[in-house]
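Intended use. Records such as the Type II toxin-antitoxin system HicB family antitoxin entry shown here are meant for training and evaluating sequence-to-structure methods. They are not intended to support clinical decisions.
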Amino acid sequence: MKMANYQYPATIESNGEGGFIASFRDVPEAITEAWDLEELKNNARDALITAIDFYIEDGRVFPPASDLQTGDLAVDLPASVVAKVMLLNTMVKSNVRPADLARKMNIKPQEVTRITDIRHATKIDTIQNAFRALGKDLVLELR
C-alpha cells in the first residue's frame, strides 16, 4: 500500500446557503461543510481523520482512495496519519490485537495505544519497529 493511495477524492456540492459540502465516496462516514473551498479542504481532512477513529473502534480496514474524477477535490492525509493507518490496516488484516503487538514489540500495551492513536505524535522509528514486529517493512519514497 503506497501513500498515493491516501489522496481521497471529495465530491463538492453547494449547501444551498452560499457554502459547500464535501463528501467522500470511499469513506461515506466523512462529510463536512464550509463557506469557502480552503476551509472546506481543511475540514475535509479533519473529517477523514475523525472517520479513521470510527474504523479503528470497529476493527475495520480503512479503505484506500479511489482515483480522482473530474471535479473532485483531492484531500490528502498527513504522512504521519498515513503511516498509522497502514499500521492499523495491517493489524486488522493480520488479526493482531494491540495486546498482541505489545507482546511482539516487548512493550507495554499502553505504548501500543499511543502508537496507534491517530492524533498522538509518534516517532517514525517507533512505527517502523511496529511494522517489523508484524513482519513488514515500512518503506519511504520520494518523488
